[in-house]
Records
---
Amino acid sequence: MLFGVSELESAMQRAADAAVEDVLGVTITTLIDNSLAKPGLGSVWGLSFHLKVHYAGRDDIILFDLGGSPHVFRHNVQALGLDLAETRAVVISHLHTDHYGALETAMEHISSKDCITYLPIGNEDVEDTITGADGRFVIADISEVVGSGISTTSALGAKSLKEQGLVINTAEKGIVLLTGCAHPGLDRLASKAQKIFPDRPFHAILGGFHINTREEGTEIAQKLQKMDVHFVAPCHCTGKAAKQALRENFDDESYWEIGTGSVITIR
């Protein structure tokens, strides 16, 4: 359900989102991570991705998670030269503060009245922050169309910790899944992504995998390989031993090292 607009406006927005339009590619900038890939940026425990989704003749900006530090968020946006004014959507994976703590700061950067924030579960304080900035939000307990070829996974997991991923269906490469911490299980989020875009190749998964040991890394690598996932880019809450196991199972070419300031273009 869309909050902050009339039913007619909501219907018009959803009709526009449902228009068939190929995603030609996506450029993913790691705005915040607890590891640093580019000097001069702030690094803090948390996660935020800046997405530039490429369509024919235009690009749409989406923010997936916002990190926990307003100061680091503001500094990195400026240092990376990112313009958030026309952001189309903000997607919050789950309501841990290291994933949404810079929400108010993000709202200050966004001037577009069409921007919608997608939440995995209701939260009065978070909702008040959005509406206080004249923003709109969706509680995405089911899969929600964010834009043509883009969808949330729906909120999965225990009632006390609902989490959603973001799925982008690129025309040439196939499915790209972004995860915050993958608390419900990375394989479960990946399986949901496949159900949203069936019969499409699974290109890549980027984000927090929420695993720590070599054994966990090997186990999840084997599950993802059975799903024909081609590339992985674990960060944030993924432990070093788990990362090493993933790298060994996917090899250097299929394992992407990312951190604050890294940029990956898929097209």
---
Amino acid sequence: MLVKGWMTTDLITVEEDTSMMKASMIMKEKKIRCLPVVNKKGQLAGIVSDRDLKDAAPSKATTLDVYELNYLLSSIKIKDLMTKNVVYVKPDETVEFAAILMLENKISSLPVINDKGALIGIITQTDIFKVMINIAGVYTGGIQFAFSLEDRPGSIKEAADVIRSHGGRIVSILSTRETAEEGRRDVYIRSSSLPEEKLKDLVRELEEKFVVLYTSKDFLEEVENRRVRIP
């Protein structure tokens, strides 16, 4: 999946001469952790995070009075705080590549720029989570079967066919060699929910024919029960 299909294009940005106070107010109001900084041509000039603002803010132990403090915060410009060497991603690069950039640089979002350097979007960790959920099909398939299968043509189809034979509708298939033993691959097949008795029969047959790492049911109704509610 490409970044352009998942990035946010309704951007909140600031210009280089924006004051630290205004940038802080925007972050708090919009509940965001970073702001892309653009120049007068709309090109990406830098990025400023809530951490940058906190590090630049006067200590609580300051002897400045409130008027002096407000003057100081309004006089400090974002261009003096922002990170200029920005890690970015392009719209036609994959979401997986964007995730690697975030992980390797220990950041939670990436500005998206076109070939002219213009800022056209932003992609965040939350967007990456949405992609993962979409690919896995969690909302439409409540059962995940994990296998250690022989790394040969047809091995995944054989396991999937057994699931289908018991009435399971295949929602997604993911596989990797990175965590598997030599000559094998770990495969994760998600299927639609099944009645308990059918599921027991299916698991029994799967365990007879394959190396089953686990079978897990996701109870999506628990999402609402575990939602964090802020008073």
---
Amino acid sequence: MEKPAFSPAELARGEALFRGPCTFVKGVVSVADLPKDGRAEVAFAGRSNVGKSSLINALTGRTSLARVSVTPGRTRELNFFTLGALYLVDMPGYGYARAPKKAVKGWTRLIGDYLKGRRELKRVFLLVDARHGIKPNDEETMKLLDEAAMSYQVVLTKADKPKASELEAVQAKVASELAKHPAAYPQVLTSSARMGSGIEELRAAIAALAS
């Protein structure tokens, strides 16, 4: 599968955006507490332990901006970070069976309410483990995003783990699956926070949404 093409100018805009300060603003547990300043937002969603916090840290060039934990389900609120004219939003991970049912129900309601009619939210980057591809609970989230008519784009994480041939097969399968979903952006991005691959392309994609 071909690597997504970004022009040198697009890559430069992405680098410039993420060279600026990125600061934690607040954690939101209710839609009533969402920022009201009209700043554009991009959000990161994914299964617990998909590498969401590691990717956010790699994007911003920090080591501890987003909390990285070996314990799934640590992010339990919508965490907002400022980045230039954008908010980066770290959403709670889903699919962690050991989390209390009440907590899971609360996160699910919060995510659903956030996605519905949030004008400032420009795109959700849906993180999928490159070793496994789209899982049933990813499908559930994709259905939720489709129903909310919220644009989303899949980013494969941990791309350094599978063999090249296995990665290509997952990329092709994911792209084929996305064609069935009306709100899905067709271009699949691939990344490895550990190796730094795909980071500049994802930065460019985010910068395009900021402008």
---
Amino acid sequence: MSSLPRIRLKLEPGKFLQIGGAHDALSAVLLEQAGFPAIWVSGFGVSASQFAMPDVNLVTMTESVEATRRMAESVTVPVIVDADNGFGDATNTRRAVREYGLAGAAGVCIEDNSFPKRCSLYPGAPRELISIEEMCQKLEAAKKAAEPFGIFLISRVESLIADRGIPDALERANAYSEAGADAVLIHSKRFAPLREIAKSGKLKKPLIVVPTLFGETPFEEMAECGIAAAIYANQMLRTMVHACRQMAGRMLTVGSLSELDNSLSTVGDVNKLVKVPTHWSEGSLQQPSSNGQSSYGKAPHGKDGHGPTREAATHAS
């Protein structure tokens, strides 16, 4: 069992949860500081930022678990991981969910794309979905692995991305709910079919959406439709790419580094984000201790300078 205190993820009727997508531990910290009550470990983001590779199952389960662990250790809000298609069959899925639990994940999302998956944001990529029966087997295995950790299990339905229509999406969503999913994430290119599904009253579990492809839809409208949560899946990654590309282009053109200062966070700001002890970042250079051991995290007079300890709590959206 993970030694990390776990904050349970919970969706409540009538409340709309906004979930921030992170691609690394620092982006997760920034999202928590901004006020997001939960963090999404973006498979798209991890693939792009940590490996510069497309989101097509090239990141291994172990690599995804380690990315999740780093984020879960860096924040105190619930962390939900995009576990793609479970990295294989039901047996692989069971093992993956257990590993995510040990890494501190509060939620795990499994999708019904075939292996290797193609990211939903690749419109020209070949797209096949596994059968409902096979996906239900994965979810039943995932649920057994999730229970000891209290993991919130999300089933992701790709019917609308694969142009199979609303009836197929509803059939899959409800079958997955019966197989053990606590919520369903139905991905879509447009909001209209999601509005119809949400208002139909036919879903057996709460609905989560990813508005990347219909960013013009107001969040208020989503909430009014009864949608439980929206995931800001890749905005942090895209912001990083936009800002870093501009900075990379400027750095070779300036006469001194000070010309870049207005576009940068201070070193002190970064120090605070990563919890450098205050007496290190604000005081004079510290001399090595007499026994040669690091004094990282030890503030003067024995006070801990490494930030607050994490406490277990229940998160209600």
